[in-house]
Amino acid sequence: MLSADTVPPDETTTVDLTLNLPQDLAEGEYQAEVNLSTREWAEVIPSTVTIVWSVTPIPWIELYGLPLALGVLALLGAVLVLIIVIRRALVQRPWGVLMIVRAPPGTLKRDYPLLNSDGRGRIFVGRKRRCQIRLNHSSIELLHAVIFAKKRKVTEQTEGKKRPTTVKKPVCLIRNLGKGIVEVGGVRLREGQVSRPLQDKTPVIFGDFEFQWRKL
User: Residue 107 phi/psi, 5° resolution?
Assistant: First the structure.
């Protein structure tokens, strides 16, 4: 039952009508009739008002659009992370240790295990902060050299076989990036020149620092 305040003659008033509909109405058209009357039983024209409404399905984009978009973004993020992990796993890294033999006076005399590299598996030697091997000395350039790994054909003797076999294995190389002293295995490298593959106990010189390469 709805009621309104007293309405003077020839004037109007607004009555709010709220229908509490079930949540599980099936699709289709519905209607309801509202009967109008007054307490003094005056004549009301019209005495009946018909209300018609329709129940339509919610578009799937409204129901599933946001969850679907979030799911797609999460899937793309997972795929991207997987690609990065796979790429990093496939990058050849120059695992090994540069064991210190001689260091200039006043500098830190320490070994450098090559456990960290950039995203492309390179290890930089120099005075810059971003260098994985930072040698702070006047004989070292800002970017002095780079150590990296690359697959090369290697001839080795396999147990049980009479003849040596040639296989592709990652080997460690050093490139001279500037005009500073870079010497590998007794061979002085020119600017841009790449060394021969490093062998266990190969002597390596950067400026006034002397190391010995040891495989891990």
Answer: -105, 165
The DSSP-derived string for 51-72 is EEEEE-PPPHHHHHHHHHHHHH
Q: Report the distance separating Cα 82 and Cα 88, nearest Å.
A: 10
Instruction: Single out the residue of 107, 115, 149 nearest to residue 132, CA to CA.
Output: 115
Give yes or no for residue 135 having a pLDDT over 60.
Answer: yes
Which positions ≥6 away from 2 have C-beta within 8 Å?
Answer: 15, 17
Determine the distance from the C-alpha atom of residue 47 to the mean position of all C-alpha atoms in its chain, rounded to a whole number. 69
Here the tokens at position 197 are 């593959």
Task: Give, in degrees to the nearest 5, the angle at Cα 53 between 47 and 54.
Answer: 160
In the chain the first and final C-alpha atoms are separated, in Å, by 89
* Cis peptide preceding 46, ω within 30 of 0: yes
Three-state SS sequence of 114-139 = CCCCCCCCCEEEECCCCCCEECCCCC
Cα separation, 112 vs 96, in Å, equals: 9
Residues 23-80 have pLDDT tens digits of: 777 778 888 888 877 766 677 777 788 888 788 777 766 667 777 788 888 889 888 8
Task: Give me the CATH topology for the region 97-214.
Answer: Tumour Suppressor Smad4 (2.60.200)
Answer whether 0.85 is exceeded by the pTM.
Answer: no
